[in-house]
Amino acid sequence: MCFYYCLTKKNPTKLIENKIVKEEQLSLFNEKFLVNGFDNPAMPVITDDKPDEIQFFNWGIIPSWVKDQFAANKLRNSTLNAKAETIFEKASFKHSIRKKRCLILCSGFFEWQKIKGKKYPYYISLKGDEVFVFGGIWSSWTDKETGEIINTYSVITTEANEFVGSIHNTKKRMPLILEPEDALKWIDRKLTEEDITKLMKPFDSSKMKANTIQKFIPAKPSDAENSEIIAYYFYPELVDLFDK
User: Fold this and answer.
1) Alpha-carbon dihedral 165, 167, 172, 175, rounded to 10 degrees
2) How far apart are the first and last CA of the chain?
3) pLDDT per residue as tens digits for the range 27-62
4) pTM
5) Whole-angstrom Cα distance, residue 21 to residue 244?
6) Which distant-in-sequence residues (6+ apart) come within 8 Å of 198 by Cβ?
7) Which fold has domain 4-230?
8) What are the boundaries of each domain within the chain?
9) How far apart are the C-alpha atoms of 153 and 101, rounded to whole Å?
10) Rounded CA gap, 79 and 70, in Å?
11) 126 close to 33: Cβ distance less than 8 angstroms
12) 152-190: per-residue pLDDT in tens?
């Protein structure tokens, strides 16, 4: 699954070239080296209804039919991710996947490899350290007591490719990473269910890289601003296959 990711501005060239974002829009958000889904943070997304804008939605989708704030808070940490294989069936996701799709700006994400009963964290990104996009879904929910409208999103996950599966070797899942040329297709409202399904596939392993990082405590807010969180860390007990 994908519960933690990173967003920097290091190399947005492909997103700019493919007209997904404009260079001047980069000033709208700050870099965050550890985005923790369980904090339900407001992060930059691009939605199908406003494809020329960067908006800030909270991670952890709240469907429009949720009754009250108590139910919303109870649900949202279980909707950080939406499985591609069942997304058209699940009540929390089936409307959004057809009518409300979004792009989630990202630079890399975190997963854990289990070896001999111990877990080791990795930072996984694209070769060239370019900014890319996850495919996601979104929803608007109105708190009936206060009238507040809360916009939220979920990261879609797929079966892991060979590379990510060798790291995330228990669940073998990965976020839906879209090629730059497919990103704007994802938020095209004319897509059929068949079109959407074709785009929900594992990303090309050959375009990815990873490095082990120091073990961290996700609850520490200071890690969001700490670039060292994604730095390579050597574990003597591991034979690193990913930094050759």
Assistant:
1) -90
2) 26
3) 999 999 999 999 999 999 999 999 999 999 999 999
4) 0.95
5) 33
6) none
7) hypothetical protein yedk fold (3.90.1680)
8) 4-230
9) 9
10) 15
11) no
12) 999 999 999 999 999 999 999 999 999 999 999 999 999
